[in-house]
């Protein structure tokens, strides 16, 4: 069984190899890094009272590129997006608009990492239990809003 980490590693190794052979830089292999990422970067930068230069310094990404990302003229590489997310104190998922959760507490992250180590049947049991609690929470919340 492959872990998500191994699959992503294999993908990026393959991508770099193909890029060397066929120069496929112009193909967007990162559809989750879309143009609204620039808007999110801009909003977070403003929220943190950073200038583009401040963010560039903290993230080690050039100020020119920060500006291009914010204007939607370019899409950050995964490496650049990760550096920007770290500088802004948010998760990469949040930066690219995949979640509204800006961060997770350390205990939750540790449990998620440990969950990946379990055998598949035990993981599925835990996922089913989590899904049940989430469904019940959403149901109670929906009924509370009706009244």
Quickly describe the structure.
The protein is mostly helical and 147 residues long. It has 8 helices and no strands.
**SSE topology string:** HHHHHHHH
Residue-averaged pLDDT, rounded? 77
* Total E-strand runs: 0
Radius of gyration: 19 Å
Supply database-style keywords.
mainly alpha; 434 Repressor (Amino-terminal Domain); 147 residues; extended
Report on this model:
With 147 residues, this protein is mostly helical. Helix content is 68%, strand content 0%. It is built from eight helices and no strands. The model is unreliable at 15-35 (pLDDT under 50).
Would you spell out the secondary-structure blueprint of this structure?
Layout: H1 4-22, H2 36-47, H3 52-59, H4 63-71, H5 78-88, H6 92-95, H7 106-115, H8 120-146
